Amino acid sequence: MVILQKIFSYIVDAAQTLILAASLFLITYIFLVRPYQVSGGSMLPNFEDKEYVLTSVISLRFEKLKKGDVVVFQAPNQENSEFKKDFIKRIIGLPGDTVFIKEETVFVEGKKIDESKYLKTEVKTYGGGFLKEGEPVTVPPGSYLVMGDNRTASSDSREWGFVKDSEIIGKSFFVYLPLENMRLIKNPFD
Questions:
Q1: The model's pTM
Q2: Residue 3 lies in a domain
Q3: Is 74 helix (H, G, I), strand (E, B) or coil?
Q4: Which sign does the torsion angle of CA 57, 54, 97, 188 carry?
Q5: Residue 17 domain-assigned?
Q6: pLDDT tens column, 118-174
Q7: In this structure, how many other beta carbons lie within 10 angstroms of the beta carbon of residue 130?
Q8: What positions carry a catalytic annotation?
Q9: How many domains is the chain built from?
Q10: CB 110, CB 99: distance < 8 Å
């Protein structure tokens, strides 16, 4: 009888521990921080394929996104897709900003943006189906214009338009795997 009580007590303790751990994980995942794996080369050289990043979900409630922030969001045009994907890109244009590409360079509010802190000087930015060379667009309220750092290999706002606030999952702040690449993600414009 004593052995059965000890076994029952152990099972109850283990179940409580598992429920507590699962609850903490869910609260963290839903409200605070989510892990994401970079897939593909659209953010090279700053983020490599298969790197893992932590993305803050809660920061969106307390601070506004800024130009240069790296965000994870629901990939566009997935309404009928069974497997939803998320993208990771850099914010280039904020709500109200006028953005255009001229001579393979990005301009925001009529000024060439200095991307030298995260892109090599020889990187060229070409227009796309949405943001065409020499044709300015104004970012509407509640939306952002995003681009991958690897401009020649990135599907981004130049092709499919703006990212809505409601589609943004969070702001990436830390690369944690592989261990040799571990680092904070800093906004180059801060």
A1: 0.88
A2: no
A3: strand
A4: positive
A5: no
A6: 999 899 999 999 999 999 999 999 999 999 999 999 999 999 999 999 999 999 999
A7: 15
A8: 42, 89
A9: 1
A10: no
Dihedral sign of CA atoms 89, 91, 93, 96 in order: positive
Write the single-letter amino acid at 187: N
Residue with tokens 């991307």: 115
Decide if 140 is inside a domain.
yes
Read off the pLDDT of residues 57-71 as tens digits, 9 standing for 90 and up.
999 999 999 999 999
From first CA to last CA, the distance across the chain in angstroms is 66
Q: Is residue 23 part of a domain?
A: no
Which CATH number do you get for residue 101?
2.10.109.10
Q: Phi then psi for 177, rounded to 5 degrees?
A: -145, 145
Whole-number Å distance between alpha carbons of 44 and 78 = 24
Residue 63's domain comprises 33-184
The sign one gets for the Cα dihedral 147, 80, 51, 165 is positive
Please give the structure tokens belonging to residue 38.
């970079």
Give the least confident one: 8-17, 63-72, 104-113.
Answer: 8-17
3-state secondary structure of 78: coil
